[in-house]
Write a structure and sequence with these properties.
The protein is mainly alpha-helical and 576 residues long. It binds zinc ion. The site of zinc ion has 4 residues, from helix 14 and helix 15.
Length: 576
């Protein structure tokens, strides 16, 4: 028997969970597949597909609960075992459900199915079929191995600093130190790790580029570029659109971003001696911090959402009341933060590690933005329609960070303006960086034959265009173009990055509109949440009445409005 969830529960941490059994899951999927293939009418096929969706929800709920509980306490032996079990049975379950997807796609009742479930579902299946063939399985294994090789090398790094050993993320507290000597030393030591492993990382990446190119050729593509787009389900935009968009960023955003960096440089007060590691510090008096305990911050968020919107308030309170937030850092808990939607329980869940920084507040806005989209998108019957494509997911979360601006004083008190100014500046300066990551990968996959040294030189040339204030005097490795080796997306999620910049621009659009009419902007936001993944990127934005950052003068208009807003702040005053 497969455990069934009926959408009802009291406390998330008390939901009973049975150990999943591989054989019965595969049998259930095969049973559905047989019924589907032998269906005598469209009606029968539709009924079977609905059963398939319910089964998928039950399975994804089991997977989600195991993952959540394992990350909350990575030392709990029950969930260590269950998590290992998922790694083991996951691929076979995927294989069986891929077979069902294929048979839905090839069903002789296709017109009736399209009428019932929509065309998009079939287009998505078609695209994912195009990116796979049994012939490439050994190459996919190789690709995964290379990813692990990179991850293991980086996560295994131990940097010795003042007699202690630190991982790269742990070095972050020193590279962001307000003390300049600490910052300089820590930064040099961190980059020295990459410089020492320059050839090794270069070789891993070279093999990755080559195997991805080989996969693309076997599948009939000219190179990996379009395959990368297809893998991400980008149905209605192309590398050409990205190229035009990057050019617009160069023209409109780079000058604004540079003016922000120039002001930062003046504030820091090192003049011509400003070094690359100094830009890690936005204010010489330190970053704005939330004032309050985690419990107080959650109560502030409750108040904020109750004033923002009844819908947001309803779901936020639901999450609090049903223990769907695990926010405080504790021993044994995994790092980072995420939101997961649990289909069988019809709820979102937020995982975080509060540490007293402004990121704690971002969790309560950003991750709740994902959560609200989860709740509203969760009303879709077709699981594939509940989430939008990867370029749109972050729009929901990032926009919430701005739609909640009028309440930031609840969290930041005297630091409120300090927070808003930095948060908006970071948004603008991030966009050119995102372009470098995308432009670099595009070039690399179009020219898979170039050497590691040439790749680095190309990266450095992009930095000079998009982040011209960056100079690396005294650091030969960075001057030769080595920065990208720490950008893990380049290795793990090829060609996924420009998405963040697109989402950033859309979130700023919401910000600008909310300053004119807060209620109208939020209504539009909720409508966008509800549309979820029912349309591909371009049509989705159009239907939600959101201007596409890639089109017309959207980018220029959005950025100009944000820069006007920023004029009210006096950053030197904020930094006192
Ligand atoms: Zn996010």
């Amino acid at each position: 028997m497969i455990q069934h969830f009926n959408g009802k529960f009291d406390k998330l941490d008390e939901v009973k969970l049975d150990k999943p059994d591989k054989e019965s899951i595969i049998a259930a999927l095969k049973d559905i597949d047989t019924k589907l293939v032998s269906a005598k009418s469209g009606e029968e096929a539709i009924k079977t597909i609905k059963e398939y969706f319910t089964l998928s929800d039950d399975l994804s709920t089991v997977f989600a609960l195991i993952y959540i509980r394992h990350t909350i306490n990575t030392k709990d032996p029950t969930y260590i075992e269950l998590n290992n079990l998922l790694d083991e049975i996951g691929p076979s379950i995927n294989e069986a459900s891929n077979q069902v997807d294929k048979d839905i796609y090839n069903s002789k009742f296709r017109p009736e199915l399209e009428k019932k479930f929509g065309k998009l579902y079939f287009e998505e299946v078609a695209l994912s079929m195009k990116t796979f063939s049994p012939e490439i399985v050994p190459d996919l294994v190789e690709e995964n191995k290379l990813t692990s090789e990179y991850v293991n090398l980086i996560s295994g790094a131990l940097i010795e600093y003042k007699g202690q050993k630190y991982s790269i993320p742990q070095m972050g507290k020193f590279t962001n130190s307000l003390d300049r000597n600490t910052r300089a030393e820590a930064s040099k030591l961190t980059w020295a790790f990459y410089a020492d492993n320059d050839d090794k990382i270069g070789d891993i990446y070279d093999r990755m580029v080559k195997v991805r190119t080989k996969i693309a050729k076997k599948l009939g593509y000219a190179n990996f570029l379009q395959l990368g787009y297809d893998r991400m389900g980008r149905l209605d935009w192309t590398p050409k659109d990205a190229e035009i968009y990057r050019k617009k960023i160069l023209d409109y955003i780079v000058p604004l971003s540079e003016s922000i960096c120039k002001a930062q440089k003046e504030r820091l007060g090192y003049g011509a001696d400003t070094k690359y590691y100094d830009y890690a510090i936005f204010y010489k008096t330190g970053n704005p911090t939330p004032k309050g305990t985690p419990v107080e911050l959650v109560n502030d968020a409750k108040k904020m959402y109750s004033e923002l919107s009844p819908v947001a308030s309803k779901y936020f309170n639901f999450m609090v009341d049903h223990n769907c937030l695990d926010l405080v850092a504790k021993p044994g808990k995994a790092g980072g933060g995420y939101m997961d939607y649990i289909a069988g329980l019809k709820t979102s869940f937020i995982f975080a590690n509060f540490n007293g920084t402004s990121a704690d507040v971002d969790t309560l806005t950003h991750e709740f933005g994902h959560s609200l989209q989860g709740f509203l998108g969760g009303k879709q019957d077709v699981p594939a329609y509940r989430n939008p494509g990867m370029e749109c997911c972050e729009m929901h979360s990032m926009s919430m960070e701005y739609l909640t601006y009028p309440w930031m004083n609840l969290f930041f008190k005297q630091d409120t303006d300090k927070y808003k100014y930095q948060h908006l500046c970071d948004a603008i300066t991030f966009i050119p960086y995102g372009c470098i990551v995308d432009g670099f990968q595009t070039y690399v996959y179009e020219h898979p034959e170039i050497t590691h040294k040439e790749r680095k030189a190309y990266w450095r040339s992009l930095e000079k265009s998009y982040l011209p204030h960056k100079t690396y005097e005294g650091n030969e490795f960075l001057e030769s173009g080595g920065w990208w080796m720490r950008q893990h997306h380049i290795f793990e999620n090829p060609l996924y990055y420009l998405d963040y910049t697109i989402a950033q621009v859309v979130s700023l659009e919401f910000f600008n509109e909310s300053r004119i009419d807060r209620d109208a902007a939020f209504k539009k936001y909720l409508n966008f949440d509800e549309l979820a993944g029912t349309l591909p990127f371009r049509s989705l934005l159009k239907k939600a009445d959101i201007k596409n950052p890639m089109d017309d003068d959207t980018l220029k208009d959005v950025a100009t409005s944000v820069m006007d807003y920023l004029k009210q702040f006096n950053p030197s005053e904020l930094d006192k």
